[in-house]
Design a protein that fits this description.
Layout lengths: L1 E6 L6 H9 L5 E3 H7 L6 H10 L12 H10 L1 H22 L9 E5 L14 E6 L2 H12 L3 H10 L3 H6 L3 E4 L4 H19 L1
Parallel strand pairs: 1-3, 1-4, 2-3, 4-5
Helix pairs in contact: 4-5, 6-7
The chain binds adenosine-5'-triphosphate.
C-alpha cells in the first residue's frame, strides 16, 4: 500500500484534481480536514490552546475562534512557532492513523496537503504529485472563488513555497492550466501509471 502526496499552491486545483482521482475510486486523506479535526471541542489540542491563549480564544459555543488565532499568529511569530510545535506532531499522528492501509482497496491512497513540502508530511509519501499553474491563473481562480482582492491572494502566494521550488520536488506534475477535460485525461493517465507502478 503506497501513499501518494498531492500538493499545490492556493487555488492551484487540489480539490478539483482530488475529485478527478476520486472518480477512479481512489481514496484520499485531506490534511486540511485533519488539521480542523484535531482541534475540535473536547480534543487535548484545543485544551492546550485555550490554556495557552486563554478562554477568549474560544467562541461562545466552545469552538476554536480561528480568525482570532490567525490574527495572533500573524502578529507574533513566536506564537506561530508554539502552535506549530503543538499541532504538527498531532496532525501527523492522525494522518498516519487515517492513512492506515486496512481502510483502502486500491494499491495507493492520496494524501492531499497544501503543506506537504513545507512540513515533514512529505516523509509519509512514496511519490509527490504537484499541481502546477502559473501565478496569474492561481490569482484569477482564487479571486473568482473566494471573492478576495488581488492583493490578498498575492500576499498568500508570496508566503507559500515558490512555483519553482515546488516543481523541483515533484515526481509527477499535473498541468492544471488547461480545460477540465484535458486535466481529466492527465489524471486518468497518471492513475493508470500509478496502478501499474504500485499494483
Ligand atoms: P485551495 O488551496 O485554496 O483550497 P485548491 O488548490 O483546492 O485551492 P480548487 O478549489 O480545486 O483549488 O480550484 C480553485 C478554483 O479554480 C475553483 O473554483 C475551481 O473550480 C477552479 N478550477 C480548478 N481547476 C480548473 C480548471 N482546470 N479549469 C477551470 N477552473 C478550474
Amino acid at each position: 500500500m503506497k501513499i501518494v502526496g498531492l500538493t499545490g499552491g492556493i487555488g492551484s486545483g487540489k480539490s478539483t484534481v482530488t475529485r478527478l482521482f476520486g472518480e477512479h475510486g481512489v481514496h484520499w486523506v485531506d490534511a486540511d480536514d485533519v488539521a480542523r479535526e484535531v482541534v475540535e471541542p473536547g480534543t487535548p489540542a484545543l485544551e492546550r490552546i485555550s490554556e495557552h491563549f486563554g478562554k477568549n480564544i474560544l467562541t461562545s459555543e466552545g469552538a476554536l475562534d480561528r480568525a482570532q488565532l490567525r490574527g495572533i499568529v500573524f502578529e507574533k511569530p513566536e506564537e506561530r512557532a508554539w502552535l506549530e510545535r503543538l499541532l504538527h506532531p498531532i496532525i501527523r499522528e492522525e494522518l498516519i492513523r487515517q492513512l492506515n492501509p486496512e481502510n483502502y482497496q486500491l494499491p495507493y491512497v492520496l494524501l492531499v496537503s497544501p503543506l506537504l513540502l513545507e512540513t515533514d508530511q512529505h516523509e509519509l509519501v512514496d511519490r509527490i504529485i504537484v499541481i502546477d499553474v502559473p501565478e496569474e491563473t492561481q490569482i484569477g481562480r482564487t479571486m473568482a472563488r473566494d471573492n478576495n482582492s488581488r492583493e490578498q491572494v498575492e500576499r498568500i502566494i508570496a508566503a507559500q513555497m515558490s512555483r519553482e521550488d515546488r516543481l523541483a520536488r515533484a515526481d509527477e506534475v499535473i498541468d492544471n492550466d488547461r480545460p477540465l477535460d484535458e486535466v481529466t485525461r492527465q489524471v486518468r493517465e497518471l492513475h493508470e501509471r500509478l496502478l501499474v507502478d504500485f499494483g
